[in-house]
Every structure is written in structure tokens, then in C-alpha cells.
């Protein structure tokens, strides 16, 4: 455990970037070996669009990094936050820290974006992807990236997480988001087993079904038990029966054009059509 702490305590920017790139490359390759869907789309063009939004996310995260580092150093140096209420062994310190960071800066802000209309309008571009694959993981409007960065800052304040733990969380968050968005098909028993603790590919794909109520389920990113605790977990027997996208933006010119996606949050609000889902 101490080796893990030492690594993330001294991790360099190029190493963090390498983690992101390595995850994308690995899951990109796996999508060709064990695909869930065989999409008929230009995979490179699709990746280019989504990687543009990955870049904007990285820029915004870099802008917030200074504040996050200050907050983290202040909290850890002064032992302020939930992690310092008890004298925890290192493994439990890491686990609880990851849970708090994941709950606030991933699950809770994600849930909020589905409940608050003006936030939802920014989040729509993530859901509008009709070809969900590993590059979809970071397809977030710059406005949404700001929301997530702010809630990461809040999570650091509440938890008191030292910066090495924040860096560990961010690495796991990126890798597991790439994993659960990846267009891969695991053996059902393995996906189900993973899904009890970690958000598995089939678990998260439910969230990307194009109509409610499934759109408003399975908000988790790292830990799947938040959805079980708050009653937002849904299991679908066959993920191949899902259809990706969001029912109010199913036209290619609205969900697959950079300029349109950037301006979508400023469109007039469109209420979801909704529908029923039944597995064949």
C-alpha cells in the first residue's frame, strides 16, 4: 500500500496522461476482439469528436488543479475532513477516501444533472452518443466538466483527501469510466459478479438507453453500490436489447456535429419522450 501512496505522491503529468492514453488504447483494442455491438460507423471520426471533448475536459481540470491542490494540502496538513475523524489503517483510509470522492464528484453530481433541467442540458451531449464506446467516457460538454471539477473540489474539502489520494481516485475514475463505456461483451457471469461492487460494462450501458426510465438509472462510475443504496440500480438481462442515444436528439446532425453539441445546452429545453423497455 505504501508503494502505491509513494507512486501517486510523486506522479508526473506525463504519467497521468499515459494512464489515460493507455486505457483508451487497451479498451479500443478489446472492442475489436469482444464487441457487444458491431456498429457500422466511422470509428476514427467518432473518436475524433469525442477526443475533442476529452481535451476540453483536461484543460478545465488543469485550470481547477491549483484550487484542488491547495484544498487538499490544507485539509491533509491540518487533518480536516471525514478521513481524520478516526485513526484509520492505510488500506481503510484509501478505501473510504475513494468512496467519498466517488460518491460526491461522480455519483451525486451525475444524479443532479439528471434532476436539474439547466444542468441536464449540458449533460445531454454525453447521452446523445448513439455509438457508445470507450471514447464516450470523456464526451462531456465543457460546462459539465466545470460542474464535475467543482464537485471534485467539494469532495476534497469534505473528505480531506491528500493529493496522492485525489490523483489515485482520478486515475481509477478515468480507467473505470473507459472500461464501463467500452463496447465490449464480457461473459455474463463475470459482468454480473463485477457489477456487485464495480460498475461493469453491462451495468452502465443501461444508463445509455435512449429513453426513460432507464436513462435515469445506474449513475455510478467506480462503485455500483451507490445505485443499490439509493434505489437507482436496474439490471437488464440482455444488454444487446438496449438502444443508445437520447430520444430528443436522435438525428445525426444533432448528435454527431461538434458545433451543434457545443451549442446544445443553449437550445430551448426539450422534454424527454420516454417509453417502456421490454427484453425480447
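Sequence proposed for the structure above (280 residues):
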Amino acid at each position: 500500500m505504501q508503494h502505491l501512496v509513494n507512486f501517486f505522491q510523486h506522479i508526473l503529468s506525463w504519467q497521468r496522461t499515459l494512464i489515460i492514453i493507455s486505457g483508451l488504447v487497451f479498451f479500443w483494442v478489446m472492442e475489436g476482439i469482444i464487441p457487444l455491438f458491431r456498429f457500422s460507423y466511422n470509428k476514427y471520426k467518432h473518436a475524433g469528436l469525442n477526443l475533442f471533448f476529452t481535451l476540453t475536459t483536461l484543460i478545465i481540470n488543469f485550470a481547477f488543479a491549483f484550487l484542488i491542490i491547495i484544498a487538499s494540502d490544507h485539509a491533509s496538513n491540518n487533518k480536516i475532513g471525514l478521513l481524520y475523524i478516526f485513526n484509520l489503517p492505510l488500506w481503510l483510509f484509501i478505501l473510504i477516501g475513494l468512496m467519498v470522492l466517488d460518491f460526491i464528484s461522480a455519483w451525486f453530481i451525475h444524479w443532479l444533472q439528471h434532476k436539474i433541467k439547466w444542468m441536464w442540458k449540458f449533460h445531454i451531449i454525453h447521452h446523445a452518443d448513439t455509438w457508445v464506446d470507450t471514447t464516450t467516457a470523456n464526451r462531456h460538454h465543457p460546462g459539465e466538466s466545470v460542474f464535475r471539477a467543482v464537485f471534485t473540489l467539494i469532495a476534497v474539502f469534505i473528505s480531506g483527501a491528500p493529493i496522492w489520494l485525489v490523483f489515485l481516485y482520478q486515475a481509477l475514475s478515468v480507467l473505470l469510466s473507459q472500461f464501463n463505456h467500452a463496447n465490449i461483451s464480457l461473459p455474463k457471469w463475470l459482468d454480473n459478479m463485477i457489477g456487485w461492487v464495480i460498475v461493469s460494462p453491462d451495468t452502465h450501458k443501461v444508463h445509455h438507453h435512449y429513453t426513460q426510465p432507464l436513462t435515469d438509472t445506474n449513475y455510478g462510475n467506480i462503485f455500483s453500490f451507490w445505485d443499490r443504496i439509493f434505489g437507482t440500480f436496474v439490471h437488464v438481462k440482455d444488454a444487446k436489447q438496449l438502444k443508445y442515444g437520447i430520444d430528443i436528439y436522435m438525428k445525426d446532425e444533432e448528435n454527431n456535429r461538434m458545433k451543434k453539441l457545443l451549442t446544445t445546452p443553449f437550445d430551448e429545453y426539450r422534454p424527454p419522450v420516454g417509453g417502456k423497455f421490454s427484453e425480447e
